[in-house]
Amino acid sequence: MSDTLNDTPRSGRLHIGIYGRRNAGKSSLINALTGHGTAIVSEVAGTTTDPVYKSMEIHGLGPCVLIDTAGFDDDGVMGGLRVEKTRLALEKTDIALLVAGDGELDEEKKWVEAFRERKTPYLVVLNKSDQYSPEETNALCARIEEALGHSPVVVSALYRHHMDRLLEAMLRLVPADWGQRDLTGSLCAEGDVVMLVMPQDIQAPQGRLILPQVQVLRELLDKKCIVASCTADKIEQTLASLREAPQLIITDSQVFPLVWKFKPAQSRLTSFSILMAGYKGDMRAFLQGAEAIDRLTPHSRVLIAEACTHAPLAEDIGREKIPRRLRARFGDTLEIKVVSGTDFPEDLTPYDLIIHCGACMFNRTYMMSRIRRAAEQGVPICNYGVALAKLAGILEHIDMK
């Protein structure tokens, strides 16, 4: 599904990961949940290779992303790579379904431990109940509960038996505050005038706004704010056209110094990237990461991570503008590495600082997993907008939601 004003972006949907051994019935379970043939079902073990992400609307759960993963018992060189992709999918999973069968449960125990370690809500599901007698089903349930400490939900995806029970159990896993987070928080309210400064540089999609701008604009309209939008070269004219100074100015982080120059004293100032930082990540961690900028030296190493996998163009913020500003302060010997998409190092210890994009293309669970990994390895992590405000010397004047 496309990221439009009338659609929930994939990154904002509830991510439901389906895990289990090869041929455990994961794909058939997805088909039963969605009501049609979303995933390929085959008796051949290992039909699902890389995880498949499918955006759906599920009655009761709302907009979701179903993740159909490869069997975690896959073997061989390629099998090992597929299992690693399945582990990566766990970092994006908001709630998990573990499909257990009548085989050994050693691997399932490891995954239950992984769910608990990450505090990922999960259910154990016994699929293919149509293949067992009532006595066999009861014995399997007792065995699974003893091994995994969790009584399974019993279903037959083939005949869609008891899928209502599974949906009810899934609903109970959804966090109570799910969908209640917003981007702007208490920074603005109904009737406030909010000015958006949105330079449309070469990275912006042709004829469209970038996703953070779309999401912020939509939220402001829902809050019944009065929105004035302009590009960076029209800041003065836009301010002059307003009867009074805007309560809030939201800008692209790249033009922080320019906007700060013209900002009325009574207007609050923030950026799209900083709003995304609070929405998708941990602002306290990012502010602590900003302090690490002062500790960098000409021989430090910085990792810049962007969620997008677009082909880099001239004046790219992560590959050109931030490195230029860092080297202007610390010299050309500062070592900077840029990664994109899911290409995020397991070992972060070689780096003195990570500067991450706003993560508009990631769900919050995935972004938080990166923040947690950085903290576990003792590496400070910052956000594009927070870093640019710090480098501009105005971070203490920027408003956080």
What does this structure look like?
This protein has 401 residues and is an alpha/beta fold. The protein folds into 3 domains: 10-173, P-loop containing nucleotide triphosphate hydrolases (Rossmann fold), CATH 3.40.50; 185-274, Rossmann fold; 282-397, Rossmann fold, CATH 3.40.50.11410. 35% of the residues lie in helices and 18% in strands. Helix 11 runs parallel beside helix 13 (384-391).
Helix/strand layout:
Elements: E1 14-20, H1 26-34, E2 52-58, E3 62-68, H2 76-90, E4 95-100, H3 106-118, E5 122-126, H4 134-148, E6 153-154, H5 163-173, E7 193-197, H6 211-222, E8 226-230, H7 235-241, E9 248-251, H8 256-262, E10 268-271, H9 272-280, H10 283-291, E11 301-306, H11 317-330, E12 335-340, E13 353-356, H12 364-376, E14 381-383, H13 384-391
Parallel strand pairs: 1-3, 1-4, 4-5, 5-6, 7-8, 7-9, 9-10, 11-12, 11-13, 13-14
Antiparallel strand pairs: 2-3
Helix pairs in contact: 11-13
Distance between the termini: 29 Å
Number of helices: 13
Radius of gyration: 24 Å
- Strand portion: 15-25%
> CATH H-level name of the largest domain... which superfamily?
P-loop containing nucleotide triphosphate hydrolases
The biggest beta sheet reads: 6 strands, mixed
- Shape call: globular
How many runs of DSSP E, i.e. beta strands? 14
Given helix and strand content, the structural type is: alpha/beta
CATH level-3 fold name of the largest domain: Rossmann fold
Give the strand order, joined by hyphens, for the main sheet: 2-3-1-4-5-6
Q: Which architecture of the largest domain does the CATH hierarchy give at level 2?
A: 3-Layer(aba) Sandwich
* Poorly predicted parts: 1-6, 39-48
Mean pLDDT metric: 89
Indicate the percent of residues in helices: 25-40%
Question: Number of folding domains?
Answer: 3
Secondary-structure element order, as H and E? Answer: EHEEHEHEHEHEHEHEHEHHEHEEHEH
CATH class of the largest domain: Alpha Beta
